[in-house]
């Protein structure tokens, strides 16, 4: 039986060594409709040959989220022990690999936008497994959705840190999905490296220019476009800088 409520949305703290990418542990504290304030990035250039990256579509003038198609995801989890209301919320990709059939439920999400992203996930879609709130946050592997959204049982468990007394079994507020380990990335892809590309792409109009990892840092469930997913995945083939 996996640890209960190990993917956390409460008690948000910044990812160590990278204050711009905060783990989504207090998603409730940020209203869903409130956009994170973004800072103007410094000019920079991608170190991985962004000039060789072929864009698959022209950037739209408004950048409206409603026009963007998301088909992949990024899921944050904490690989290092941290007690929350007496429960260790640690859950690394190695913990996932140790589960029966390398499969588990992704519980404990208590932010409406993140919950809606969970509910939008489709069977077979892939997601990056992202280690957060640790010495060096970043992407460590790939998982896939093996069961679409259904009620998160932890919302009804009074012993669980994410118990929600206002949620009713006849109309549950919170959902979860089941994910299964697919593979480790060929190398660890650190947040700092992804951020460097994001800043360069904001200046150049590259695929990571609007990546939610930097525009809505507190969300523990984040959607990715095909372009974003493909570009980040391509980084595993490169030697770390």
TrEMBL record:
GO terms for cellular component: nucleus. Residues 1-64 are annotated as: Disordered. Residues 40-51 have a biased composition (Low complexity). It comes from the Eukaryota. Its main location: nucleus. Residues 10-28, 55-64 have a biased composition (Basic and acidic residues). Specifically binds 5-hydroxymethylcytosine (5hmC), suggesting that it acts as a specific reader of 5hmC. This is Thymocyte nuclear protein 1. It comes from Corythaeola cristata.
